[in-house]
Specification:
With about 190 residues, the chain is mainly alpha-helical. Helices cover about 55% and strands about 5% of the residues. The chain has one domain. The chain binds iron/sulfur cluster.
């Protein structure tokens, strides 16, 4: 995947942080509070973000690599049953294993009140800015898709899909059944 896209993605992440800095000053979030990674997390990512995570997982040594893959498969299974599931990258001390490359879903979310299992309370303006940023990320990834982290990583783990995606091919018909049953969005259709 082109380096420029990864750089542009970082710029979008940074721009959002800058835009909401004032709002986030009142956030109740602290390191080690991982409610959004456990209870209310609806961690959707784009294929662009998924590739960055896929590449990081590929650098993990065994048995960690297999453990993460098993965790992602478990996530996928639980999501398919409609259950909330703990993110495969959440560590025992409740910190994120891939914090430096975490997707935008994990970046925009904050709460001005401690969640304690409930939904986060976020400023409306920040929420709107987050929605706009999601669209910009999807526009940056026009031959890609968006969906739950475990579903997108599942697709990217398949050689045929990953190679075709990396070549910039756009073949939604190849994943039509999976896409329909797993709520996968086509970026170029939803980012307008
Ligand atoms: S990727 Fe990291 S920050 Fe995002 S849900 Fe998973 S553990 Fe939490």
């Amino acid at each position: 995947m082109k380096i420029e896209k990864r750089e542009k993605l970082k710029e979008l992440y940074n721009q959002y942080e800058e835009d909401v800095a004032e709002f986030k000053k009142s956030a109740a979030c602290v390191k080690g509070c991982a409610d959004c990674c456990i209870y209310v997390g609806n961690i959707d990512i784009t294929t662009l973000e998924g590739m960055i995570i896929h590449d990081r997982v590929a650098t993990f040594e065994e048995p960690l690599k297999s453990e993460i893959k098993a965790g992602l498969a478990q996530n996928k299974m639980e999501r398919e049953k409609g259950k909330l599931s703990q993110c495969a990258f959440l560590q025992a001390d409740k910190t994120c294993m891939i914090y430096d490359i975490r997707p935008f879903s994990c970046r925009w979310l904050y709460s001005v009140k401690k969640c304690d299992g409930a939904s986060p309370t976020i400023h409306r303006k920040a929420l709107n800015l987050a929605k706009q940023t999601v669209k910009k990320i999807q526009q940056l990834d026009p031959s890609g898709y968006s969906g739950h982290i475990s579903y997108i990583l599942f697709l990217l783990d398949k050689d045929e899909f990953r190679k075709s995606y990396l070549r910039g091919k756009f073949k939604p018909q190849k994943i039509a059944d999976f896409g329909r049953s797993h709520g996968i969005l086509i970026n170029r259709s939803v980012s307008r």
